[in-house]
Design goal:
It is built from seven helices and 14 strands. The chain has 290 residues and is α/β, with parallel strands linked by helices. The protein has one domain: 4-Layer Sandwich (Nitrilase/N-carbamoyl-D-aminoacid amidohydrolase), CATH 3.60.110.10. The strands form two sheets. Strands 1, 2, 3, 4, 5, 6, 11 and 14 form an eight-stranded mixed sheet that branches. Strands 7-8-9-10-12-13 form a six-stranded mixed sheet, covered by helices on one side.
């Protein structure tokens, strides 16, 4: 089975209204639709752009007020998915539950369903500056184009959680991210390659670019989208199906062939998933079955 994926290098800049945010999102959505994409990925924390609108009194909005946009955000992206018949990973949006803030990735299906995956590993900045709470469980999602998982930014730096996603049958990991400098960007990028090699899966990665001068901790963004493959003969030598121009406002698109994953898992130059030493370390596949 083949699927076409697009990843948005979302340009953060100050806006004046929700309508302006919607128009920018629609631009990327329509571009992906013109390319015939099945999935489109937005980055982590891209909805913080809404905080730059400010309050009616002219004061700055904080992360605690971002959940107030949740209903509008969900309605907007649900409509996009229904109109375009694409699966949209709407980056992440901050939601509030029982007095706690969570950084939640949203998957919008063409049929109107909305699924969620809370970020599982929370960075020190999210904890100390934004008082974020971690999600409590990994999910995988069935689509008519295969089984996927959504792991946000810091999540991809933990091998165990991606191993669990593969054990649950995910062939494609979508990774919305948000990094503010080269160090953070390369941590996420390099570990995305490692996870693709270790588990013989595809990783679709993207991040924010631009700046929000009036939003705390979103003033600097350093990002680049990439569609990452295992490193074996059926795939590009560098394990890159496509990548964007660094810190540019753009969208990238590529086709993923799931049959190539199944081929290399059985008879690739290396068979990293099959050759894991379950006598030496825990086997997540068996744990999932148990």
């Amino acid at each position: 089975m083949k699927l076409r994926v697009s990843a948005v290098q979302y340009h953060l800049h100050t806006i004046q209204s929700f309508q302006e945010f919607a128009a920018q999102c629609e631009h990327y959505i329509k571009t992906a639709q013109e390319y015939g994409s099945d999935f489109v990925l937005f980055p982590e924390f891209f909805t913080t752009q809404l905080l730059s609108i400010g309050s009616d009194q002219g004061t700055r909005l904080t992360i605690n007020e971002l959940p107030g946009f949740t209903e509008q955000y969900r309605e907007l992206f649900s409509r996009f998915a229904a109109e375009t018949k694409m699966h949209i990973i709407g980056g992440t949006h901050v939601v509030q539950r029982e007095g706690k803030l969570y950084n939640v990735a949203h998957l919008f299906y063409p049929d109107g369903r909305i699924e969620e995956q809370a970020k599982l590993h929370i960075t020190p900045t999210e904890v100390h500056e934004w008082n974020m709470s971690a999600g409590d469980g990994l999910r995988v999602f069935d689509t008519d184009k295969g089984r996927i998982a959504i792991l946000t930014c810091y999540d991809i730096e933990f091998p165990e959680i991606v191993r669990m996603a593969k054990a649950k049958g995910a062939d494609v990991i979508f990774c919305p991210s948000c990094t503010d400098d080269r160090h953070g960007f390369h941590r996420v990028r390099y570990t995305s390659h490692a996870r693709a090699i270790e588990n013989q899966v595809y990783v679709v990665l993207t991040g924010t670019i631009g700046a929000l001068p009036t939003v705390d901790f979103m003033r600097a963004n350093f990002g680049q989208a990439a569609i990452i493959t295992p490193n074996d003969i059926p795939f590009p030598p560098g394990g890159l199906q496509a990548e964007g121009e660094l810190n540019s406002d753009m969208i990238i698109t590529a086709d993923l062939d799931l049959s190539l994953l199944y081929e290399v898992r059985e008879k690739g130059s290396v068979t990293t998933w099959r050759d894991r030493r379950t006598d030496l370390y825990p086997d997540w596949e068996h744990k999932m079955e148990g």
